Amino acid sequence: MKVGLIGLGNLGGRIARNLLNKGYKLSVYDLDQELLQFFGGLGAIPYESPSALSRNNDYVITVLPNAEIVKSVVLGPDGLLSGFLEGSTLIDMTTSIPGVTKQIGVELSKNGIHMLDAPVSGGVKKAEDGTLAIMAGGDEDVFLGAYSLLNDIGSNVTHVGELGAGHTIKALNNMLCATTLAATAEVLAVGTKLGLNPDKMLEVINTSSGRSHSSEIKFPQQVLSRKFEVGFTIDLMCKDLTIANGIAEGAEVPAFISGAVFQLWQYAKSQGGGEMDHTAIAKFIEGMAGVEIKV
Ligand code: NAD
C-alpha cells in the first residue's frame, strides 16, 4: 500500500509521524516548504505538487484547514485528480462540509477514483499515538480496503454511512463538544465567583450528572492548569460550528442552543482568540465573569 499525506499541520503532522513510526514509506506535500523539508528529514518522501504525489500513491490522505482548500487541492490546477491512477482512493480527514465532499466524490468517481470522508476526533496527542476516533463515510468495500491504514491511524474506526456521513457526524460531535466546554466554563465561573474551589467543583461534577469529556479531561489538563496548549484552535472550532449549524439548517431542524454557542465562540474569535487553543474559550467567559477558574 503506497500512502501519501497532504497537510502537515498540527493534526496532519502528528498523523504523519505516527505512520512513519509504524514503518510506512510515506509521501508528503504541504504548501509550507519548511514543514515539507522537516518531514523529509524524518524519512518521508516530499513531493512538489499534489498531482505528483497522487501519481505515485494509491492512497492519499488530506488533512487540510477547510472544504474550499480540499476542493482546490483535489480538483484545482495540478491537483490530486490530475495525477491519480484509476482505482486510487482519496481519504479526506479534514473536518469539512458534507455537500462539498459529495461534489468532490462525484468528480473523482467519473475518473474511477474512490473517496472516503474520514474525519477524526481526539486531538494531537492521540494523532501521534495512532489512537484517534475515526468516523468514515463512503462505499463499504472501499472502507474495508482502507481499513488497515485507518486502523493504524485510529483505535476506534467506525463506518457511519455514505460519502459525507463522516463529515456530518464530525461537525455534530464538535457542536456538542463546543457546548459542553462553554457550559462547563460558565458553571465553574459562577461557582468560583461565589467562592467555591474549582478543583472541588470538578471533583463533584465528574462523579455527577453534569460530567462530560470537557469536565473530565479538558478542564483539569488545560484550564485549571492554565496551560491552554495549542492543539485545536478557536478558529477551527468556529469553522466546525458554522458547518454544524449549516447542517441543522439544511435538515430544517431548529438549533437554538448551537446558535447561542456559536455566538459565544465567534465573540472569542472577534476578541483576537482565533489562534488560541479551543480550551481558551474559558478565558473569554472568565473575562465576562470577572474571575479566573484556577486553584
Ligand atoms: P493546521 O492549520 O495546523 O494545518 C493545516 C496544514 O495544511 C498546514 O500545514 C498548511 O500549510 C497546510 N495547507 C494549507 N493549505 C494548503 C494547500 N493548499 N496545499 C497543501 N497544504 C496546505 O490545521 P490542523 O489543526 O492540523 O487541522 C487540520 C484539519 O483537521 C482541520 O480541518 C481541522 O478542523 C481538523 N482537526 C484538527 C484537530 C486538531 O486537534 N488540530 C482535531 C480534529 C480535526
Automatic annotation (TrEMBL):
InterPro entries listed in its UniProt record: 6-PGluconate_DH-like_C_sf, 6PGD_dom2, 6PGDH_NADP-bd, HIBADH-like_NADP-bd, HIBADH-related, NAD(P)-bd_dom_sf
Keyword Acyltransferase among record annotations: no
Ranges for domain 6-phosphogluconate dehydrogenase NADP-binding: 2-161
GO terms assigned for molecular function: NAD binding; NADP binding; oxidoreductase activity, acting on the CH-OH group of donors, NAD or NADP as acceptor
3-hydroxyisobutyrate dehydrogenase-like NAD-binding domain location: 164-284
Entry keyword set: NAD, Oxidoreductase
Catalytic center residues: 170
Family membership: Belongs to the HIBADH-related family.
PANTHER family xref list: 3-HYDROXYISOBUTYRATE DEHYDROGENASE, MITOCHONDRIAL (PTHR22981:SF7), 3-HYDROXYISOBUTYRATE DEHYDROGENASE-RELATED (PTHR22981)
Protein name per the record: 3-hydroxyisobutyrate dehydrogenase
